[in-house]
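In the laboratory, one determines a bound structure by crystallizing the protein with its ligand and collecting diffraction data. In a computational setting the workflow is compressed into a single prediction: the sequence and the ligand go in, and a structural description comes out. We illustrate the idea with adenosine-5'-diphosphate.
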Amino acid sequence: MTSDLYVWMFLPGEYRPVVAGRLSLSLTPAGRVGRFVYGKSYLSNKNAIPIDPVALPTHGNIEPFLSLGGYPGAIMDSCPDRWGIKVINRLLGEQPYPDGYILLNDPGRVGCLAFSTSADTPPEELASREFELEDLLRASQLIERNQAVDDELLRALHPGTGGARPKCNITDKEAVWIAKFPSADDPVQISTPRLEHASMTLAKLCGINAAETRLLSVNGSDICLVRRFDRVVKSDGIARLGYLSARTVFNSDPDFQRFKIASYARLSRWLSRFGTSPDGRAELYRRMVFNCSVRNTDDHELNHGLVFDPQCGYVLSPAFDIVPQMVPHRIYHHAMMTGETAAGTFDNMLSACAAFGLEKDQAVQIIYEIQSLIKSHWQDVFYECGCGEEEIRYLERYFSPVPLTGD
Ligand SMILES: Nc1ncnc2c1ncn2[C@@H]1O[C@H](COP(=O)(O)OP(=O)(O)O)[C@@H](O)[C@H]1O
Ligand SMILES: [Mg+2]
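The predicted complex, in C-alpha coordinate form:
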Protein backbone atom coordinates (compact mmCIF):
# COMPACT_ATOMS: atom_id res chain seq x y z
CA MET A 1 0.00 0.00 0.00
CA THR A 2 1.30 3.44 -0.93
CA SER A 3 0.22 6.84 0.36
CA ASP A 4 1.24 10.24 -0.94
CA LEU A 5 1.96 13.44 0.91
CA TYR A 6 2.30 16.65 -1.10
CA VAL A 7 4.91 18.99 0.25
CA TRP A 8 4.48 22.72 -0.20
CA MET A 9 7.06 25.41 0.40
CA PHE A 10 6.80 29.06 1.38
CA LEU A 11 9.67 30.41 -0.71
CA PRO A 12 11.70 33.22 0.89
CA GLY A 13 9.58 36.36 1.16
CA GLU A 14 6.39 34.67 -0.17
CA TYR A 15 3.17 34.49 1.83
CA ARG A 16 1.61 31.64 -0.17
CA PRO A 17 3.17 28.21 -0.55
CA VAL A 18 3.91 26.48 -3.88
CA VAL A 19 3.94 22.70 -4.43
CA ALA A 20 7.52 21.51 -4.07
CA GLY A 21 7.11 17.75 -4.47
CA ARG A 22 5.58 14.49 -3.38
CA LEU A 23 6.56 11.98 -0.72
CA SER A 24 5.32 8.45 -1.46
CA LEU A 25 5.35 6.07 1.48
CA SER A 26 5.11 2.35 0.93
CA LEU A 27 5.07 -0.56 3.31
CA THR A 28 7.76 -3.12 2.55
CA PRO A 29 8.89 -6.23 4.46
CA ALA A 30 11.78 -4.08 5.72
CA GLY A 31 9.46 -1.39 7.10
CA ARG A 32 8.06 1.84 5.69
CA VAL A 33 10.08 3.42 2.89
CA GLY A 34 9.67 7.01 1.72
CA ARG A 35 10.55 8.23 -1.79
CA PHE A 36 10.55 11.92 -2.56
CA VAL A 37 10.41 13.61 -5.96
CA TYR A 38 10.38 17.34 -6.69
CA GLY A 39 7.67 18.57 -9.06
CA LYS A 40 8.76 19.74 -12.53
CA SER A 41 7.17 23.16 -11.98
CA TYR A 42 9.14 23.55 -8.75
CA LEU A 43 12.42 22.58 -10.37
CA SER A 44 11.84 25.11 -13.14
CA ASN A 45 11.07 27.89 -10.62
CA LYS A 46 14.21 30.06 -10.53
CA ASN A 47 13.62 30.85 -6.85
CA ALA A 48 13.31 27.19 -5.82
CA ILE A 49 15.48 26.09 -2.92
CA PRO A 50 15.97 22.53 -1.66
CA ILE A 51 13.86 21.46 1.31
CA ASP A 52 17.08 19.98 2.72
CA PRO A 53 20.28 20.59 0.71
CA VAL A 54 21.83 17.25 1.68
CA ALA A 55 19.02 14.66 1.86
CA LEU A 56 16.68 16.40 -0.62
CA PRO A 57 18.88 18.16 -3.19
CA THR A 58 17.12 19.84 -6.14
CA HIS A 59 19.99 18.65 -8.38
CA GLY A 60 21.10 15.05 -8.06
CA ASN A 61 19.92 11.77 -6.71
CA ILE A 62 17.53 11.55 -3.74
CA GLU A 63 17.98 8.31 -1.79
CA PRO A 64 14.93 6.51 -0.37
CA PHE A 65 14.18 7.27 3.29
CA LEU A 66 14.32 4.29 5.62
CA SER A 67 14.68 5.82 9.08
CA LEU A 68 12.13 8.02 10.93
CA GLY A 69 9.34 5.80 9.60
CA GLY A 70 10.23 6.64 5.97
CA TYR A 71 9.85 10.40 6.48
CA PRO A 72 12.68 12.77 5.56
CA GLY A 73 13.92 14.54 8.70
CA ALA A 74 12.94 17.94 7.28
CA ILE A 75 9.32 16.77 7.03
CA MET A 76 9.35 15.26 10.53
CA ASP A 77 10.54 18.65 11.77
CA SER A 78 7.09 19.91 10.73
CA CYS A 79 5.33 17.46 13.02
CA PRO A 80 4.13 18.71 16.38
CA ASP A 81 5.45 17.00 19.48
CA ARG A 82 3.99 16.16 22.91
CA TRP A 83 2.23 19.45 23.65
CA GLY A 84 0.97 20.06 20.08
CA ILE A 85 -0.28 16.48 19.81
CA LYS A 86 -2.08 16.78 23.13
CA VAL A 87 -3.86 19.95 21.97
CA ILE A 88 -4.84 18.45 18.58
CA ASN A 89 -6.13 15.30 20.26
CA ARG A 90 -8.36 17.46 22.46
CA LEU A 91 -9.55 19.50 19.48
CA LEU A 92 -10.01 16.86 16.78
CA GLY A 93 -9.39 13.47 18.37
CA GLU A 94 -6.39 11.22 17.92
CA GLN A 95 -4.84 11.28 14.43
CA PRO A 96 -2.70 8.66 12.67
CA TYR A 97 0.93 9.38 13.60
CA PRO A 98 2.72 11.21 12.08
CA ASP A 99 0.89 12.06 8.84
CA GLY A 100 -2.40 13.02 10.53
CA TYR A 101 -0.52 15.61 12.62
CA ILE A 102 1.73 16.71 9.77
CA LEU A 103 -1.31 17.35 7.57
CA LEU A 104 -2.90 19.67 10.12
CA ASN A 105 -1.17 22.77 8.85
CA ASP A 106 -0.62 25.39 11.41
CA PRO A 107 0.60 28.94 10.94
CA GLY A 108 2.92 28.33 13.88
CA ARG A 109 4.75 25.26 12.64
CA VAL A 110 8.50 25.52 12.53
CA GLY A 111 10.17 26.32 9.19
CA CYS A 112 8.55 26.97 5.83
CA LEU A 113 6.76 23.77 4.77
CA ALA A 114 3.06 22.93 4.44
CA PHE A 115 1.26 19.74 3.40
CA SER A 116 -1.77 18.39 1.58
CA THR A 117 -2.98 15.10 0.09
CA SER A 118 -3.11 16.34 -3.51
CA ALA A 119 -1.30 18.83 -5.73
CA ASP A 120 -4.64 20.57 -6.43
CA THR A 121 -5.56 21.06 -2.78
CA PRO A 122 -3.60 23.91 -1.23
CA PRO A 123 -2.82 23.42 2.45
CA GLU A 124 -5.39 24.95 4.74
CA GLU A 125 -4.22 26.41 8.00
CA LEU A 126 -5.79 25.97 11.43
CA ALA A 127 -6.69 29.61 12.01
CA SER A 128 -7.53 30.95 15.43
CA ARG A 129 -8.57 34.32 16.77
CA GLU A 130 -6.38 36.24 19.17
CA PHE A 131 -6.68 35.91 22.93
CA GLU A 132 -5.21 37.68 25.94
CA LEU A 133 -2.23 35.88 27.49
CA GLU A 134 -4.22 35.56 30.68
CA ASP A 135 -6.85 33.43 28.89
CA LEU A 136 -4.20 31.36 27.12
CA LEU A 137 -2.38 30.72 30.40
CA ARG A 138 -5.57 29.62 32.14
CA ALA A 139 -6.54 27.37 29.21
CA SER A 140 -3.05 25.77 29.16
CA GLN A 141 -3.55 24.85 32.83
CA LEU A 142 -6.96 23.35 32.05
CA ILE A 143 -5.47 21.29 29.21
CA GLU A 144 -2.80 19.95 31.56
CA ARG A 145 -5.52 18.96 34.02
CA ASN A 146 -7.62 17.39 31.22
CA GLN A 147 -10.46 19.80 31.94
CA ALA A 148 -12.84 21.34 29.40
CA VAL A 149 -11.47 24.11 27.16
CA ASP A 150 -13.22 26.12 24.48
CA ASP A 151 -12.31 24.97 20.91
CA GLU A 152 -11.16 28.45 19.85
CA LEU A 153 -8.72 28.51 22.76
CA LEU A 154 -7.48 25.04 21.84
CA ARG A 155 -6.74 26.28 18.32
CA ALA A 156 -4.86 29.27 19.73
CA LEU A 157 -2.88 27.00 22.02
CA HIS A 158 -1.65 24.76 19.25
CA PRO A 159 1.95 25.93 18.89
CA GLY A 160 2.69 24.28 15.52
CA THR A 161 6.21 23.73 16.82
CA GLY A 162 7.46 20.75 18.77
CA GLY A 163 8.40 20.38 22.42
CA ALA A 164 6.63 19.05 25.48
CA ARG A 165 6.07 22.19 27.54
CA PRO A 166 2.77 24.10 27.37
CA LYS A 167 3.23 26.87 24.84
CA CYS A 168 1.63 28.84 22.03
CA ASN A 169 2.55 31.56 19.54
CA ILE A 170 1.79 35.21 19.96
CA THR A 171 2.47 37.92 17.42
CA ASP A 172 3.17 41.60 17.93
CA LYS A 173 4.34 44.35 15.57
CA GLU A 174 7.98 43.28 15.85
CA ALA A 175 8.01 39.51 15.92
CA VAL A 176 6.33 36.18 16.50
CA TRP A 177 7.10 34.82 19.97
CA ILE A 178 6.75 31.39 21.51
CA ALA A 179 5.03 31.95 24.87
CA LYS A 180 6.25 29.20 27.23
CA PHE A 181 3.95 28.70 30.22
CA PRO A 182 4.57 27.09 33.60
CA SER A 183 3.68 23.40 33.81
CA ALA A 184 2.21 21.35 36.65
CA ASP A 185 5.23 19.02 36.23
CA ASP A 186 7.80 21.76 36.89
CA PRO A 187 10.20 21.50 39.84
CA VAL A 188 8.91 23.49 42.82
CA GLN A 189 12.18 25.21 43.80
CA ILE A 190 12.13 27.84 41.04
CA SER A 191 9.79 28.93 38.26
CA THR A 192 10.88 27.21 35.03
CA PRO A 193 9.97 30.11 32.67
CA ARG A 194 12.09 32.42 34.90
CA LEU A 195 14.94 29.91 34.95
CA GLU A 196 14.80 29.67 31.14
CA HIS A 197 14.79 33.46 30.69
CA ALA A 198 17.69 33.93 33.14
CA SER A 199 19.72 31.08 31.59
CA MET A 200 19.21 32.43 28.07
CA THR A 201 20.24 35.90 29.31
CA LEU A 202 23.38 34.39 30.86
CA ALA A 203 24.11 32.52 27.61
CA LYS A 204 24.08 35.84 25.73
CA LEU A 205 26.44 37.32 28.28
CA CYS A 206 28.79 34.38 27.58
CA GLY A 207 28.92 35.37 23.91
CA ILE A 208 26.34 32.85 22.67
CA ASN A 209 23.89 33.83 19.96
CA ALA A 210 20.78 32.91 21.96
CA ALA A 211 17.24 33.77 20.88
CA GLU A 212 15.89 36.90 22.55
CA THR A 213 13.67 36.16 25.55
CA ARG A 214 11.36 38.26 27.70
CA LEU A 215 9.79 37.42 31.03
CA LEU A 216 6.17 38.37 31.68
CA SER A 217 4.18 37.97 34.84
CA VAL A 218 0.49 37.25 34.36
CA ASN A 219 -1.69 36.81 37.46
CA GLY A 220 1.39 35.82 39.46
CA SER A 221 2.59 33.22 36.90
CA ASP A 222 5.76 33.62 34.85
CA ILE A 223 5.68 33.29 31.07
CA CYS A 224 8.88 33.19 29.03
CA LEU A 225 8.57 34.69 25.55
CA VAL A 226 11.13 33.43 23.03
CA ARG A 227 11.49 35.40 19.80
CA ARG A 228 11.02 33.16 16.76
CA PHE A 229 13.98 33.15 14.38
CA ASP A 230 12.02 31.44 11.58
CA ARG A 231 9.44 34.20 11.21
CA VAL A 232 9.89 37.77 9.97
CA VAL A 233 7.02 40.15 10.68
CA LYS A 234 6.64 42.62 7.80
CA SER A 235 4.09 45.34 7.17
CA ASP A 236 2.14 43.16 4.73
CA GLY A 237 2.52 39.68 6.22
CA ILE A 238 4.70 37.20 8.08
CA ALA A 239 7.53 35.58 6.09
CA ARG A 240 8.83 32.11 6.99
CA LEU A 241 12.36 30.78 6.97
CA GLY A 242 13.35 27.13 6.55
CA TYR A 243 14.39 25.17 9.63
CA LEU A 244 16.19 21.83 9.99
CA SER A 245 16.74 20.24 13.39
CA ALA A 246 20.03 18.58 14.35
CA ARG A 247 18.11 15.29 14.10
CA THR A 248 17.62 16.01 10.41
CA VAL A 249 21.31 16.84 10.03
CA PHE A 250 22.26 13.53 11.71
CA ASN A 251 19.87 11.51 9.58
CA SER A 252 21.57 12.86 6.45
CA ASP A 253 24.82 11.20 7.56
CA PRO A 254 25.13 7.55 6.44
CA ASP A 255 27.40 6.76 9.44
CA PHE A 256 24.68 7.96 11.76
CA GLN A 257 22.29 5.43 10.22
CA ARG A 258 24.61 2.69 11.47
CA PHE A 259 25.50 3.86 14.97
CA LYS A 260 22.75 6.36 15.86
CA ILE A 261 25.06 8.30 18.16
CA ALA A 262 24.21 11.98 18.29
CA SER A 263 27.15 14.17 19.19
CA TYR A 264 28.12 17.83 19.13
CA ALA A 265 31.20 16.85 17.13
CA ARG A 266 29.13 15.14 14.43
CA LEU A 267 26.82 18.14 14.22
CA SER A 268 29.84 20.39 13.87
CA ARG A 269 31.42 18.29 11.12
CA TRP A 270 28.14 18.28 9.19
CA LEU A 271 27.47 22.01 9.43
CA SER A 272 29.67 22.77 6.43
CA ARG A 273 27.67 20.32 4.26
CA PHE A 274 24.69 22.60 4.89
CA GLY A 275 26.69 25.66 3.97
CA THR A 276 27.43 26.97 7.47
CA SER A 277 30.69 28.93 7.78
CA PRO A 278 33.51 27.77 10.12
CA ASP A 279 32.42 30.40 12.69
CA GLY A 280 29.33 28.23 13.26
CA ARG A 281 31.55 25.43 14.55
CA ALA A 282 33.21 27.59 17.21
CA GLU A 283 29.77 28.92 18.22
CA LEU A 284 28.53 25.34 18.60
CA TYR A 285 31.52 24.53 20.81
CA ARG A 286 30.67 27.51 23.05
CA ARG A 287 27.07 26.25 23.30
CA MET A 288 28.27 22.79 24.28
CA VAL A 289 30.58 24.23 26.95
CA PHE A 290 27.81 26.51 28.21
CA ASN A 291 25.25 23.67 28.40
CA CYS A 292 27.76 21.59 30.37
CA SER A 293 28.55 24.55 32.63
CA VAL A 294 24.89 25.21 33.55
CA ARG A 295 23.94 21.52 33.64
CA ASN A 296 21.51 21.72 30.77
CA THR A 297 21.46 18.01 30.04
CA ASP A 298 18.28 18.31 27.95
CA ASP A 299 20.46 19.40 25.00
CA HIS A 300 19.10 16.76 22.62
CA GLU A 301 18.97 16.74 18.82
CA LEU A 302 15.67 18.64 18.65
CA ASN A 303 17.05 21.44 20.81
CA HIS A 304 19.63 22.44 18.16
CA GLY A 305 18.96 23.37 14.57
CA LEU A 306 19.73 25.33 11.44
CA VAL A 307 17.73 28.21 10.01
CA PHE A 308 17.72 29.32 6.39
CA ASP A 309 19.38 32.64 5.75
CA PRO A 310 18.46 33.84 2.23
CA GLN A 311 21.95 35.41 1.94
CA CYS A 312 24.11 32.46 2.98
CA GLY A 313 21.99 29.29 3.17
CA TYR A 314 21.54 27.23 6.33
CA VAL A 315 23.27 28.63 9.41
CA LEU A 316 23.21 27.55 13.06
CA SER A 317 19.94 28.92 14.44
CA PRO A 318 20.03 31.09 17.56
CA ALA A 319 20.26 28.87 20.65
CA PHE A 320 17.00 28.01 22.46
CA ASP A 321 15.58 25.85 25.26
CA ILE A 322 18.58 26.29 27.55
CA VAL A 323 17.41 25.30 31.03
CA PRO A 324 19.55 23.76 33.82
CA GLN A 325 18.01 20.42 34.74
CA MET A 326 17.17 20.38 38.43
CA VAL A 327 18.60 16.98 39.32
CA PRO A 328 21.84 17.14 41.31
CA HIS A 329 24.62 14.80 40.17
CA ARG A 330 28.36 14.71 40.62
CA ILE A 331 29.01 14.25 36.90
CA TYR A 332 26.34 15.28 34.42
CA HIS A 333 25.69 13.25 31.29
CA HIS A 334 24.35 15.10 28.27
CA ALA A 335 21.79 14.14 25.65
CA MET A 336 24.45 14.30 22.90
CA MET A 337 28.06 13.18 23.22
CA THR A 338 30.20 16.09 24.41
CA GLY A 339 33.51 14.41 23.60
CA GLU A 340 34.52 10.78 23.79
CA THR A 341 31.54 10.30 26.12
CA ALA A 342 28.50 12.38 27.08
CA ALA A 343 30.04 13.52 30.40
CA GLY A 344 30.09 17.25 31.06
CA THR A 345 33.70 17.35 32.25
CA PHE A 346 36.61 19.58 31.27
CA ASP A 347 38.72 16.72 29.86
CA ASN A 348 35.87 15.31 27.84
CA MET A 349 34.92 18.65 26.28
CA LEU A 350 38.55 19.23 25.42
CA SER A 351 38.84 15.82 23.73
CA ALA A 352 36.35 16.93 21.04
CA CYS A 353 37.90 20.28 20.06
CA ALA A 354 39.38 19.28 16.67
CA ALA A 355 35.89 18.59 15.28
CA PHE A 356 35.10 22.27 15.90
CA GLY A 357 38.22 23.50 14.09
CA LEU A 358 39.82 24.44 17.42
CA GLU A 359 43.35 23.85 18.70
CA LYS A 360 43.60 22.57 22.28
CA ASP A 361 44.72 25.96 23.64
CA GLN A 362 41.81 27.73 21.93
CA ALA A 363 39.37 25.23 23.40
CA VAL A 364 40.90 25.60 26.88
CA GLN A 365 40.52 29.36 26.55
CA ILE A 366 36.82 29.04 25.63
CA ILE A 367 36.16 26.68 28.54
CA TYR A 368 37.95 28.99 31.01
CA GLU A 369 36.30 32.09 29.62
CA ILE A 370 32.77 30.67 29.89
CA GLN A 371 33.37 29.25 33.36
CA SER A 372 34.76 32.52 34.58
CA LEU A 373 31.95 34.61 33.02
CA ILE A 374 29.39 32.34 34.66
CA LYS A 375 31.17 32.50 38.02
CA SER A 376 31.34 36.30 37.98
CA HIS A 377 27.87 37.05 36.63
CA TRP A 378 25.31 34.31 37.12
CA GLN A 379 24.06 35.57 40.49
CA ASP A 380 23.64 39.16 39.25
CA VAL A 381 21.85 37.98 36.13
CA PHE A 382 19.50 35.79 38.15
CA TYR A 383 18.82 38.58 40.70
CA GLU A 384 18.04 40.94 37.83
CA CYS A 385 15.67 38.36 36.40
CA GLY A 386 13.79 38.39 39.71
CA CYS A 387 15.19 35.35 41.53
CA GLY A 388 15.28 35.62 45.33
CA GLU A 389 18.06 34.73 47.83
CA GLU A 390 16.65 31.30 48.50
CA GLU A 391 16.42 30.42 44.80
CA ILE A 392 19.96 31.61 44.17
CA ARG A 393 21.23 29.51 47.08
CA TYR A 394 19.39 26.50 45.70
CA LEU A 395 20.78 27.06 42.19
CA GLU A 396 24.41 27.40 43.34
CA ARG A 397 25.10 23.68 42.84
CA TYR A 398 24.19 23.97 39.14
CA PHE A 399 26.62 26.79 38.43
CA SER A 400 29.74 25.43 40.11
CA PRO A 401 32.75 24.84 37.81
CA VAL A 402 32.55 21.63 35.76
CA PRO A 403 34.60 18.73 37.18
CA LEU A 404 37.99 18.27 35.56
CA THR A 405 37.53 14.64 34.86
CA GLY A 406 35.22 11.69 35.62
CA ASP A 407 33.20 9.09 33.77
N1 LIG B 1 13.06 30.87 18.91
C1 LIG B 1 12.57 29.91 18.13
N2 LIG B 1 12.25 30.14 16.84
C2 LIG B 1 11.75 29.15 16.05
N3 LIG B 1 11.52 27.88 16.48
C3 LIG B 1 11.82 27.59 17.75
C4 LIG B 1 12.36 28.57 18.64
N4 LIG B 1 12.54 27.99 19.84
C5 LIG B 1 12.12 26.73 19.72
N5 LIG B 1 11.71 26.47 18.46
C6 LIG B 1 11.15 25.21 17.93
O1 LIG B 1 10.12 24.80 18.80
C7 LIG B 1 10.43 23.55 19.40
C8 LIG B 1 9.96 23.58 20.85
O2 LIG B 1 10.58 24.66 21.54
P1 LIG B 1 11.36 24.39 22.90
O3 LIG B 1 11.77 25.72 23.43
O4 LIG B 1 12.44 23.40 22.67
O5 LIG B 1 10.19 23.79 23.81
P2 LIG B 1 10.20 22.67 24.95
O6 LIG B 1 10.75 23.36 26.17
O7 LIG B 1 8.79 22.27 25.08
O8 LIG B 1 11.10 21.56 24.47
C9 LIG B 1 11.93 23.38 19.21
O9 LIG B 1 12.28 22.01 19.19
C10 LIG B 1 12.18 24.08 17.89
O10 LIG B 1 11.85 23.22 16.81
MG1 LIG C 1 12.87 21.56 23.51
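The pocket of adenosine-5'-diphosphate (ligand 1) is lined by residues 110, 161-165, 178, 211, 226-230, 302-303, 320-321 (CB under 6 Å). Keep in mind that any predicted model is a hypothesis to be tested, not a measurement.
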